[in-house]
Amino acid sequence: MKVSEIEKLTNHYDKCFRQNNCIILHPKNERFHIDAALYPPTDRYPFWKLATIGASDYEMKGKNSLGNRNEYMLFIDPSVDMKDKVTAVKYYDLLLKTALFPVNNGVFVSYGHSLEFADESSSEIVGVFLELPQAIEDTGVLRCKLSLFKKAVCLQVIPLDKQALERLLKEGNEEFSYTYAYPDNEDEAHWMCKL
Asked: pLDDT tens, 110-164?
């Protein structure tokens, strides 16, 4: 990513999350360079925000009305110790795995899609559901114009354990979003995740 694009995306996150105190996490992966910005909980958004910086460099095949370049974000329970390096890397790795899924598989992904990760027997997380980041009041969080011809779509990543994946497959994407990710009733929302 160009420095100007990094600045635009970071400013976009700063504006939408209403804070400018992120810590940048850098990858070990030499082939694909995707950083992540980690924002601590605040009164307005009392959860950790972890968002990719650079996933939109990898254009996906296919298009929809939003676009074909994504950035991804996780909203993490405030009780998780994200200052612990091992813990932070675990969440970062999930974001990286999500960002690289369309690149490695030559597919197009957008909101409402679910990704199932093969051979995850050692992990409770077997996939993710991509959602619109409804926890953020500023609906402008969804898109970030990086340059004249390059826009990033910013999607929320919701981790799925085996039970959640089975529920998603049974109910379908739209119903899953309404009943699990952002329920209309008094049920607890899932978007505050713990791995």
From this structure: 998 999 987 655 568 899 999 999 889 999 999 999 998 899 999 999 999 888 8
**Residue 139 three-state SS:** helix
Q: Looking at the chain, how many residues does it have?
A: 195
> What is the sign of the dihedral through the CA atoms of 177, 60, 117 and 23?
negative
Q: Distance between terminal CA atoms of the chain?
A: 29
Give the domain ranges of the chain: 3-181
Burial of 84 (0-12, 13-18, 19+ CB in 10 A): exposed
Give the tokens for residue 102. 């369309």
Tokens of 117: 């990760």
Gap between the Cα atoms of 72 and 89, Å rounded = 15
